[in-house]
Specification:
The structure is a single chain. The chain is of the alpha+beta class. Helix content is 20%, strand content 31%. The protein has 7 helices and 23 strands. The chain has helices spanning 111-115, 138-151, 159-172, 252-263, 313-325, 337-345, 389-402, and strands spanning 4-6, 14-15, 18-25, 30-35, 56-57, 81-88, 92-93, 97-100, 118-120, 123-127, 133-136, 184-193, 205-215, 226-231, 268-273, 278-282, 285-292, 298-302, 329-332, 349-356, 360-369, 372-375, 411-413. The strands form 3 sheets. Strands 5, 6, 7, 8, 9, 10, 11, 12, 13 and 23 form a 10-stranded mixed sheet that branches. Strands 14-15-16-17-20-21 form a 6-stranded mixed β-barrel, surrounded by 4 helices. Strands 1, 2, 3 and 4 form a 4-stranded antiparallel sheet that branches. Helix 2 crosses helix 3. It is globular and about 60 Å long. Residues 1-44 have low confidence and may be disordered.
Length: 414
């Protein structure tokens, strides 16, 4: 009996949109076989794009009961409906649907389960005092969503049309948005590869879906500054990797170090990289340092987008606001832990905080780094405060924009 060793995933020849896989036989010859699964579509006909005008809506027959605001737990409760849009390489995007929230049926051989073809976004809808629903900078979320999809060879899409579909979903499930400041509707667009195939290559089928979850304030009783464990044994991301894409594969490897940090009494990891212990991210948030630098300048600094840092929407918003004030130097550059330790010892460290969609701002009060605890100042005028004055200022302004209290182009009425 002949046995073969398949050279999986090698594109050694194409003809009429079919890839031929080569297998070496024990006889020393090559067996050439066409693969009908792993293929590159060379059909240049126009493919269908997402089109909100063709949106179908199937309403739920028995709407679920709302959870009281006080009982909301982040990511546990879900609204009545979801967006669902299928894609395949021959036809492009199917007509979008809003259907009742339900299970997704996939074959166990779907590539998402084996090779992590999955990316997602995190955004929120807010209800203002007049009862109007608002999104915060949805165009930035869609640009990042497209970038993440491109990075892992998933299909791209018309960003404006997807925003329209999301707006329709939010309007349909508007009753789930708590009418109270600090509360919001978390929106999770997700894109997965669904082709049933045990082989590494571009997927020929995909599913884009959007689900929503009502959420309360990240800190229910006000700010709660965190203690961090500066992690040197594990690396979250590296230049040239996927740290700048919002993909599931970036998150699961971080859970074990986070659990280990929690067992030692720390709320999050401070991710470091390289021989100089460069600061990258705080847990799943971007990191900011506010200090007097070695040139005696007051400076707000955050790591640059070098391919290992996620381009956070909150991060960008903070940088834009800070530069518009013109009160201090604002930089995107490399920061190292030895620099932070030195600044702390010399009394130049003023504040540090994480920034992201869930918490907006997460003040930092302490960092454990190489067997020493570095205390980070909060509010020098209020010893009982759990946030510094700059962190408070950013939160107040960003929330004011999100809830329509401060007129701004970033707040988009649904």
């Amino acid at each position: 009996m002949l046995s073969s060793l398949a050279l999986r995933g090698q594109r050694l020849g194409t003809c009429n949109s079919t890839i031929f896989l080569f297998s070496r036989l024990t006889t020393g010859s090559l067996l050439i076989r066409p693969s009908r699964f792993l293929s590159i579509n060379t059909n240049h006909e126009q493919k269908s794009e997402i089109n909100h005008d063709k949106l179908h809506i199937q309403r739920i027959e028995s709407p679920k009961s709302l959870t009281p605001n006080k009982d909301l737990i982040f990511g546990r409760q879900f609204t009545d409906h979801m967006v669902s849009i299928e894609w395949d390489s021959d036809h492009g995007w199917s007509e979008p649907w809003i259907r009742p929230y339900d299970k997704i049926s996939l074959e166990p051989s779907s590539v998402v389960f084996h090779y992590s073809f999955e990316c997602f976004e995190g955004m929120k809808a807010y209800k203002d005092k007049e009862g109007r629903v608002r999104l915060f900078r949805p165009d930035m979320n869609m640009k990042r969503f497209t970038k993440s999809a491109t990075r892992i060879a998933l299909p791209t899409f018309n960003e404006r049309e997807l925003i329209k579909c999301i707006k329709s979903l939010v309007r349909l499930d508007e009753r789930w948005i708590p009418a109270e400041r600090g509360y919001s509707l978390y929106i999770r667009p997700t894109l997965i590869g669904t082709q049933p195939f045990l082989g590494v290559g571009p997927t020929s089928q995909a599913l884009l879906f959007v689900i929503c979850s009502p959420v309360g304030p990240y800190y229910k009783t006000g700010f709660d500054a965190v203690k961090l464990l500066a992690t040197t044994e594990n690396v979250r991301a590296w230049p040239g990797g996927t740290g700048d894409a919002k993909i599931g594969g970036n998150y699961s490897p971080c859970v074990k170090p986070q659990v280990e940090a929690a067992l030692k009494g720390y709320q999050q990891n401070l991710w470091l990289f390289g021989p100089d212990d460069e600061v990258t991210e705080v847990g799943t948030m971007n990191c900011f340092v506010y200090w007097k630098n070695e040139d005696n300048e007051i400076e707000l600094v955050t790591p640059p987008l070098d391919g290992s840092i996620l381009a956070g929407v909150t991060r960008d918003s903070i940088l834009v606001l800070a530069r518009s004030w013109g009160e201090y130097k604002v930089s995107e550059r490399k920061i190292t832990m030895p620099q932070i330790v030195k600044a702390s010892e010399e009394g130049r460290l003023l504040e540090m905080f994480g920034a992201g969609t869930a918490a907006i701002i997460s003040p930092i009060k302490e960092i454990h780094y190489r067997n020493q605890n570095i205390k980070v100042p909060l509010d020098p005028k209020d010893p009982s405060s759990n946030a510094g004055p700059l962190a408070k200022r950013f939160v107040d302004i960003l929330m004011g924009i999100q809830y329509g209290e401060i007129p701004h182009e970033w707040s988009v009425i649904v």
